[in-house]
Design a protein that fits this description.
Largest sheet: 10 strands, mixed
Number of helices: 12
Distance between the termini: 25 Å
CATH topology of the largest domain: TIM Barrel
Radius of gyration: 22 Å
CATH class of the largest domain: Alpha Beta
Bound molecules: iron/sulfur cluster
Helix content: 25-40%
Shape: elongated
């Protein structure tokens, strides 16, 4: 490398570092943008123009905000940035599932999954880099927690994934079931959901958004009081002994407290709480487990999703055979509990949360 190219590279990386210290514009609410605009001496309606460009049109630079005065554009450029995450790896499964590994500005990586099924296109989103919850059946748990995602990084997954949609495809549903425990990143999750659901933001109905939690009780109660999204609770066991092994957070929030808290949640009359139950051969898939589940959920308006386990390297757990899953489902249905089976999607691309990350980092 000669001296000129060395200098050019240094100044470009200094520019990149300076960029990173700027606040990301794509995590601001309308009120926050309004304040910025007014402080600059512009009129309030400019704030609506800016959020339209950011969230509805998804532009990636201030230069693209053509109806703003040049002075305001220059001010924004000088003081803010627009996070533009991109997929560093995209794996495409034969069933149409696409898994994206998205590289963040600091080099960390997260996973998002596009799942087309039964007339819907669902985006499965991450909320943290890694996770601290240590669930035994989860590949992400093996990473530990690296850090929380910002609101702009959570939203950025939607923009990055949109570029992977096929002609005619559009996202119909959004689920926070990727890497991380969303409720452990509460303030940023609320900021993200606010922008996703606001009429001035992405204008997505909260009914199309599901937040999955392993059972952080105080945050579950707060979330539904703030934004009426759907809640999915990861259950996976019917006794404290087994649940504490599979999902150690159970030691802090045991089953009886979790069920009591679910009873009190402000669920609309026609809605039900979704419980998730990963089917593990010889661990939680017996007839007695199914009966235990019926008893546990009897006081609730609940439905349950039985999930085929996606095994990953280093895990001793195995998925239950289809016959066992169907027998389990039949017992629940006979007990008048709505029980669906979630087919394993994208098996050929390591679709369990955290697997693509693990594979890439083994490869490098
Ligand atoms: S299952 Fe969810 S909460 Fe549990 S370790 Fe994995 S990402 Fe975290």
């Amino acid at each position: 490398m000669n001296a000129d190219s060395d200098t050019a590279e240094r100044s470009s990386s200094m520019r990149d570092m300076r960029e990173l210290t700027l606040r990301d514009m794509r995590e601001l609410t309308l009120d926050e943008v309004r304040q910025i605009v007014v402080d600059f001496g512009e009129r309030e309606f400019r704030a609506r123009q800016i959020v339209q460009w950011l969230y509805a049109r998804g532009v990636e630079s201030f230069d693209a905000m053509l109806d703003l005065p040049a002075t305001l554009r220059a001010h924004l450029k000088q003081n803010f940035r627009i996070g533009v995450p991109a997929a560093s790896v995209v794996s495409r499964a034969t069933d149409g599932t696409r898994k994206l590994l998205i590289r963040l500005a600091d080099g960390e990586e997260i996973e998002s999954v596009i799942i087309p099924a039964e007339g819907r296109v669902t985006l499965c989103m991450s909320s943290q880099v890694g996770c601290a919850m240590a669930c035994e059946f989860c590949a992400t748990a093996r990473m530990g927690l690296h850090r929380n995602l910002t609101a702009s990084e959570m939203l950025g997954q939607i923009f990055a994934a949109r570029s992977e949609l096929l002609p005619g495809e559009e996202f119909t549903n959004f689920v926070f079931m990727g890497m991380g425990e969303p409720l452990a990143n509460y303030p940023r999750l609320i900021q993200t959901l606010t922008i996703m659901t606001a009429e001035w933001g992405m204008n997505i109905s909260p009914r199309r958004i599901t937040v999955s939690t392993v059972g952080l009780i105080p945050a579950m109660e707060r979330l539904l009081a703030e934004i009426p999204v759907n809640l999915a609770v990861s259950l996976h066991a019917t006794t404290n002994e087994l649940r504490s092994r599979l999902a150690p957070i159970n030691q802090r929030y045991p089953l009886e407290d979790l069920i009591a808290a679910c009873r009190k949640l402000p669920i609309k009359r026609r809605n039900r709480i979704m419980f998730e139950y990963v089917m593990l051969a010889g661990v939680n898939d017996s007839i007695a487990d199914a009966r235990g589940l019926l008893k546990l959920l009897a006081p609730l308006r609940a439905k349950i999703n039985l999930i085929f386990y996606n095994p990953f390297d280093g895990s001793n757990l195995r998925t239950s055979p289809r016959a066992a899953v169907e027998a389990f489902q039949a017992i629940l249905k006979n007990g008048n509990l709505t029980a669906t089976i979630r087919e394993s999607r994208g098996l050929d691309i390591a679709a369990a949360c955290g697997q693509l990350y693990a594979e890439q980092h083994r490869a490098t």
